[in-house]
Automatic annotation (TrEMBL):
The keyword Kinase applies. Gene3D superfamilies: Probable inorganic polyphosphate/atp-NAD kinase, domain 2. InterPro entries: ATP-NAD_kinase_PpnK-typ_C, NAD/diacylglycerol_kinase_sf. Keywords: Kinase, Plasmid, Transferase. PANTHER family: NAD KINASE. This is NAD(+)/NADH kinase.
Length: 253
C-alpha cells in the first residue's frame, strides 16, 4: 500500500510524520493510494484542495496533539492499513467562484469548506446579493458574506451564528458578517443547486476580496458562487470517529 503522509509544521505532527513514514514508507502524493494528514483541520483541508486535480485520491485525517480537528480521526501509529481499508468514504462537495476584478480580469477558485467575501478596508462593504431566479437582489452593508458547505458549517460559519448543515446533505449556507441592519438579514440555507450572484457596490472605494483556505483574490467587483457540478473530494472517516463526527452535523452516518 502506497501512503503519502502530509504533516503540520507543529512539533507533534512532525514527530508523528517520522514515526509513521518509518513504519509504512513515504510515497509521493501523485503516486499514493491514500493521503494521510497529521495535524488538524487546516492540514486536512490543504490536502483535500490538492486532490482537486486527483479526485480519486482519498484523504484520511488524523488529529495530533495541539491541533483542532473537528473532522479528523484519532491518532495512533498501529493498524493504519486496516483503518484505511475499513473507513467510510464521504464525498464532499466543492464550491466554485467565478469572479471579475476591478479592471476587468476574470478569475476562478475552488473551496472545500467555505468561500468568504471580506471588506479590505475599514469601511463596510456594500453588496447586492441575489439567488438566481429567486426574486430581486438584496442590498446589504457589512463586513462580508460566507458561503459554506456541510463540512465547513461547524467552523467559521458557526462562529458567525450560521446554521449547522447535515454531513452529506445537498445544502449550502449563506451567513453575513457584521451586517449593518441585522433585522433585514438572516442566515439562509440553500439547495446546492442554487447560484449566488454578488455585485460589489462602489467596488473601487469599498474594495472586497474573496478568500478560501488556500487562496485570496482582492478587488472583486462581482462574483458568482455555486457548487461545482463536476468536482468532489473524498474524506475517509473511520468507525471510531463516526459517532463524534455525526453528532454535530445532526444526522447519523
Amino acid at each position: 500500500m502506497k501512503i503519502a503522509f502530509v504533516a503540520s509544521p507543529k512539533p507533534g505532527a512532525q514527530t508523528a510524520l517520522k514515526e509513521l513514514s518509518d513504519r509504512y514508507g513515504q510515497a509521493a502524493v501523485a503516486e499514493a493510494e491514500f493521503i494521510v494528514t497529521l495535524g488538524g483541520d487546516h492540514t486536512a483541508l490543504e490536502a483535500l484542495h490538492e486532490t482537486l486535480a486527483m479526485p480519486a485520491k482519498p484523504v484520511f485525517a488524523m488529529r495530533t496533539d495541539g491541533s483542532v480537528g473537528s473532522f479528523c480521526n484519532s491518532f495512533r501509529t498501529h493498524d493504519l492499513t486496516d483503518r484505511l481499508h475499513a473507513a467510510s468514504r464521504v464525498q464532499l462537495p466543492v464550491l466554485q467562484a467565478e469572479m471579475e476584478q476591478v479592471g476587468g480580469r476574470s478569475r476562478e477558485l475552488f473551496a472545500i469548506n467555505e468561500i468568504v467575501l471580506d471588506r479590505q478596508v475599514f469601511q463596510q462593504a456594500k453588496l447586492s446579493v441575489a439567488v438566481r431566479g429567486n426574486g430581486d437582489p438584496m442590498n446589504i452593508n457589512g463586513d462580508g458574506l460566507v458561503l459554506t458547505t456541510p463540512i465547513g458549517s461547524t467552523g467559521y460559519n458557526r462562529t458567525l451564528g450560521g446554521p449547522l448543515l447535515p454531513l452529506g446533505s445537498s445544502l449550502m449556507a449563506v451567513t453575513g458578517k457584521a451586517i449593518g441592519c441585522p433585522l433585514a438579514w438572516s442566515p439562509a440555507v440553500l439547495s446546492d443547486h442554487e447560484i449566488l450572484d454578488v455585485e460589489v457596490i462602489e467596488a473601487a472605494h469599498r474594495p472586497v476580496q474573496i478568500a478560501t483556505t488556500s487562496e485570496t483574490i482582492p478587488n472583486i467587483c462581482r462574483a458568482r458562487l455555486f457548487r461545482s457540478p463536476d468536482r468532489t473530494v473524498t474524506l475517509l472517516v473511520d468507525r471510531e470517529a463516526q459517532g463524534r463526527l455525526c453528532t454535530p452535523f445532526g444526522r447519523q452516518c
